[in-house]
Write a structure and sequence with these properties.
Shape: globular
Oligomer: single chain
Mean pLDDT: 88
Helix content: 40-55%
Distance between the termini: 29 Å
Largest sheet: 8 strands, antiparallel
Number of helices: 11
Length: 273
């Protein structure tokens, strides 16, 4: 049996919705499904009921598990009504996947950190599936197996049950959920009911980075995915990812990725051909 039959990626993509969307498959999607929410939020069926899915939520569905997805109008903190939801989604199957799934209990919803490693795995699988000419079709299968094992590692590293650890993860969730808007340290601390100095200390102790640096990383990751996969103008991407000026966005993006946003878009879109 070939590698791609052992673990076969059937379809993979990145979607960004600015209009309402609804999909329902009561009898299951017939194959395994991974869906990673990267932007905005939506609602999906989890344990039999529609549940709000936020940025950083990873959904895992068995082929027989009912699936429902609803993206509709939301009201943000300024009272503006909008639709915004971005996600990676991968349908896959195979003997290796069956064995992996049955090794342990798989929760439908997992809270994850949108790290560079995790996003890169999703992105590479999507890029491989979009290649028009691909003489190495087994490559997505290897990436998929690595992604599944990475999920196992994430499950083993779920948030600590200590009070300080819980507060640190609450802060992280606030940042991920609100990264597309402008906020201050006072807003972050207030969201968990502690002082700014304590919030800064707890976050640094738990994640070895500052609140503002982590916020910047989340915003840049968000912008990078939209640059590659969405048709939005670069100026609009900067604004929608929490940057109050394109000049500043251009500078910090170049500093992190070694090239301007426009050059980054050109290079990565050429890889899709």
């Amino acid at each position: 049996m070939s590698v791609d039959q052992i673990c076969q990626v059937l379809t993979a993509g990145f979607s960004f919705h600015r209009k309402p969307y609804y999909f329902s498959q009561p009898e299951g999607v017939k194959n395994y499904l991974l869906r990673l929410q990267t932007d905005g939020r939506c609602r999906a069926k989890v344990n039999g009921k529609l549940t709000y899915i936020e940025s950083g939520d990873l959904l895992l569905y068995h082929p027989t598990e009912p699936y429902e997805l609803k993206i509709d109008n939301e009201e943000n903190k300024l009272g503006d009504v909008l639709v915004e939801s971005g996600d990676y989604h991968i349908f896959f199957s195979g003997q290796w996947v069956d064995e992996w799934w049955n090794k342990k209990r798989r929760p439908t919803l997992i809270k994850v950190d949108l790290t560079e490693n995790l996003l890169t795995l999703f992105r590479q699988i999507v890029l491989e599936q979009r290649r028009i000419a691909n003489p190495y079709p087994e490559i997505p299968s290897y990436y998929m197996r690595i992604l599944c094992l990475e999920i196992d590692r994430l499950l083993s590293e779920q948030p600590t049950s200590t009070q300080n650890g819980y507060l640190a993860f609450q802060i992280k969730n606030y940042i991920v959920e609100n990264a597309s808007t402008l906020f201050k340290l006072e807003d972050v601390a207030s969201s968990v009911g502690i002082s700014v100095s304590r919030a800064v200390h707890l976050f640094k102790e738990a994640f070895d980075t500052s609140i503002m640096q982590y916020t910047m990383d989340v915003r840049l990751n968000m912008a990078r995915e939209r640059i590659i996969f969405s048709p939005m103008p670069l100026e609009h991407i900067a604004e929608s990812c929490g940057f109050n000026s394109y000049t500043y966005f251009h500078r910090v993006f170049r500093s992190k990725y070694g090239m301007a946003p426009r050059e980054f878009r050109t290079i990565h879109r050429e890889q899709l051909l």
